Amino acid sequence: MDICIVGAGYVGLTTAALLAELGHSIHCIDKDISKIKLLNEGKSPIHEPGLEELLRKNQQNGKLIFSDDREACFLNAPILLIAVGTPSKPNGDTKLTALKSVFEQISRNISSHKLIIIKSTVPPSTNEWLHQYLIKSGVDATLFDIVSNPEFLREGSAVYDSFHPDKIVIGSSSPSAIETVKKIYEKLNAPYIETSLTGAELMKYASNAFLATKISFINEFSRICDQYGVDVNEISTSIGMDPRIGPHFLQSGLGYGGSCFPKDLDALGYAARKRRIKTDILRAVKKVNEDQVDYYINKLDKEIHGLKGKQITVWGLTFKPNTDDTRESQSVKLCEKLLKRGCSVVTYDPKVQTIRIPIDFAPDMYQAAKYSHALIVATDWQQFKSPDWLKVKRAMIGNTILDGRNCLDRNEVIAAGLNYVGVGRP
Ligand SMILES: NC(=O)C1=CN([C@@H]2O[C@H](COP(=O)(O)OP(=O)(O)OC[C@H]3O[C@@H](n4cnc5c(N)ncnc54)[C@H](O)[C@@H]3O)[C@@H](O)[C@H]2O)C=CC1
Ligand SMILES: O=C(O)[C@H]1O[C@H](OP(=O)(O)OP(=O)(O)OC[C@H]2O[C@@H](n3ccc(=O)[nH]c3=O)[C@H](O)[C@@H]2O)[C@H](O)[C@@H](O)[C@@H]1O
């Protein structure tokens, strides 16, 4: 099938690679000309394992074309898949500027039937609103169908996730549109969930909100474990064995970040408030997450007898490993707070070399530890989990290692003569 993907970000690019690989003819467009230029040079503008190779392979075999000629794509492609960003406003509402601009262009360039698939995460009833928008713009209702088809991939494993989804949610009131979407994905081995437009939107928010709730639950629990000298990792393993709870998203640490959990929780809270629904759980999830960075910093403060004037090493700036994304990263928030408390910060991240705050970047993880009073593992990149701790000890002035992701082998750290500190890790 001929499909035009609008938005060459994490979701748009991964979906473009997936659908081209499944045999479809893909045109992927973006308003950002520099991204398109890079992609046409065979380079991915984002770091996502396996993505660049897959994009290049499908560009070479002619299945995937990148362009910035949006109007031509809107005119020609019978299927439009929209994956533009939907960031938050300060009040928690969602900025739909990109989506509205795409729909404005579609309304001006529609002369044959379009199946419009919305992949972007949007607040409940946005897809209904977009439907009405096209009608009000004078587009005949027979000329288009809208389908809500939310995305559940995770950054860092986006390619794997999109080839192995645990379900494909298809929200629409049009049976023929639903059938076409099923055909697009027919080579994937995943169950379909058919629902309404708004049902699909809410399934996406429920998923992210529940996952964030699990994380904040275990993070709050880690503070209780801290007081009782019990290892929270053992608690996670134990409760995770109960199939009613499940083992995933119970890794305690500095908390969740990224471009989605914080924004989607805010958007859901905002949508609920608009309908006068109180969202006590959502508020508590957010509060625990916000407090978590302070909890770690206060623990470090006690451990090294004051922070002011100390040099702290932070390993990892991305919001999770295997990505170059620092949006809403707890690690970046940690650095900002350390600076405010009078520390100097030296950092190393395998994928980030600059950031908008005044911290120093070292060329490798060991040089980052040089002359520091304490070292914090803030992102659980594989290489930080089992480093040469003796080398770290020789580089540092102090000897405290704060495990911000509860991902280190405590005994290895202690064996090197270092002081292991975690939250909920005796
Ligand atoms: N990043 C993730 O892991 C996931 C994101 N989502 C959702 O998918 C959507 C996209 O997210 P990302 O891919 O992370 O965003 P992104 O910010 O990486 O990419 C969005 C792209 O859309 C382009 N764009 C904006 N306006 C445009 C326009 N009018 N015409 C053409 N291109 C335009 C931007 O230049 C950018 O390249 C969001 O709604 C997000 O919540 C859903 C699941 C996973
Ligand atoms: O809507 C989205 O954008 C996506 O949001 C998340 O994916 P993502 O944000 O890429 O990454 P996650 O693996 O969910 O991690 C999010 C944050 O939670 C933290 N986390 C995760 C798991 C855990 O047990 N503990 C924990 O602190 C991670 O360090 C990270 O900061 C969801 O997992 C995806 O299903 C969803 O599609």
Automatic annotation (TrEMBL):
State the Gene Ontology terms under molecular function. NAD binding; UDP-glucose 6-dehydrogenase activity
Q: Which UniProt keywords apply?
A: NAD, Oxidoreductase
Protein name, as recorded: UDP-glucose 6-dehydrogenase
Summarize where NAD(+) binds, as residue positions: 30, 35, 86, 121, 155, 263, 327
**Is Heme given among the entry's keywords?**
no
Query: Out of the domains of life, which is the source?
Result: Bacteria
Can you give the residue ranges of the UDP-glucose/GDP-mannose dehydrogenase C-terminal domain? 313-410
- What broad class of enzyme is this? oxidoreductase
The species this protein belongs to is: Guptibacillus hwajinpoensis
What residues does substrate bind to? 152-155, 204, 249-253, 257, 320
Name the EC number(s): 1.1.1.22
